[in-house]
Amino acid sequence: MDIKKVGVVGCGLMGGGIVQVTAQSGYQVVVSEINDALLNKGLWAINSSLSRGVEKGKLSQQDKDATLGRIKGTTTTTDFGDCDLVIEAAVENLELKKKIFADLDKVAPPHAILASNTSGLSIMDMARATSRPEKVLGLHFFNPVPIMKLLEIVRSIATSDDTLETGKQFGKSVGKTIIIARDMPGFIVNRLMVPQLLNAIRMYECGVATREDIDTGLNLGLNHPMGPLTLCDLVGLDTLAFIANGIYEEFKDPQYITPTLLNKMVTAGWLGRKTGKGFYDYK
Ligand SMILES: NC(=O)c1ccc[n+]([C@@H]2O[C@H](COP(=O)([O-])OP(=O)(O)OC[C@H]3O[C@@H](n4cnc5c(N)ncnc54)[C@H](O)[C@@H]3O)[C@@H](O)[C@H]2O)c1
């Protein structure tokens, strides 16, 4: 299928990045948020990210202007009426995602593919909320989307070969390397990564080492580009807790139980970089 126009639900950390790379790749994009303030905040973040690219000489001012010209913001789902692909990037909550998919199913044209950027929730549950389960799949981008090369495509038991193929073509067209996972909690990357992040928090919580030494340990000892506590702050501590809880709900495996310290930090509103405070201060 030929994709010309792409919809994105949610203009937060991930939605904004998906909008940026999709528009930079030449697609028309419409992005929705729950209100004007969040929409403007998300569009402003895309503008800033593109400006940084211009400053670093990665793209021209003309490319930046053309990219922004392909992006339209909205607060209503009816604007997805002529999209060929809609990617949901709202918060990691299955009930909310099911509701969004049911709404999208009503407004998107019958041929449109509906995708979720979920970090690990059930694609089949989202597909079941629509009348087109064969046209639903996971398109799991990584943070920050303009930089990270990977796209994890998630195929449910109902996803058709055509939908998978279109997902792969789309991923390649926005410059990503594709891996394919079955629709199992956490898919490939988060099933492996989340226990490590939670263990790093547990280590810090019980005083095994300082946050800096835990980070330096994995940074230099395992050659990870950043330490686990820095990565937690980048992911967003609320999002990490949502992801871990989502995987735990399915597997009941104790390695996915969120540490008390993580729960307390989320309650305090210390969500990492996006709020200026997490394991480190960013103010
Ligand atoms: N943060 C990461 O590192 C990361 C990486 C890969 C995947 N993900 C997944 O991407 C999704 C989004 O995560 P995020 O980090 O961008 O979260 P975020 O909190 O930064 O952004 C989510 C946005 O969705 C908006 N939203 C909520 N309901 C909506 C609705 N009905 N319509 C339109 N917008 C709505 C919120 O207002 C918010 O701005 C989650 O499913 C998450 O698990 C996150």
Question: What can you tell me about this protein's structure?
Answer:
The protein has two domains: 178 residues, NAD(P)-binding Rossmann-like Domain (Rossmann fold, 3-Layer(aba) Sandwich); 86 residues, Orthogonal Bundle (N-(1-d-carboxylethyl)-l-norvaline Dehydrogenase, domain 2). It is built from eleven helices and eight strands. It has an eight-stranded mixed beta sheet with strand order 3-2-1-4-5-6-7-8, with helices on both faces. Nicotinamide-adenine-dinucleotide binds next to α1, α4 and α10.
Count of the domains: 2
**Biggest sheet: strands side by side, in what order?**
3-2-1-4-5-6-7-8
SSE string, helix = H, strand = E?
EHEHHEEHEHEEHEHHHHH
Distinct small molecules: nicotinamide-adenine-dinucleotide
Molecular shape: globular
**Count, helices:** 11
Average predicted confidence as pLDDT: 97
Distance between the termini: 46 Å
Record the SSE blueprint.
Elements: E1 5-9, H1 13-24, E2 28-32, H2 36-55, H3 61-69, E3 71-74, E4 85-88, H4 94-107, E5 113-116, H5 123-128, E6 136-141, E7 150-155, H6 161-173, E8 177-182, H7 189-205, H8 211-221, H9 228-235, H10 237-251, H11 260-268
Parallel strand pairs: 1-2, 1-4, 2-3, 4-5, 5-6, 7-8
Antiparallel strand pairs: 6-7
Residues 9-15, 32-34, 38, 89-92, 96, 100, 117-119, 140, 142-143, 235-236, 239, 243 line the site of nicotinamide-adenine-dinucleotide.
Short descriptors:
283 residues; alpha/beta; binds nicotinamide-adenine-dinucleotide; 8-stranded mixed β-sheet
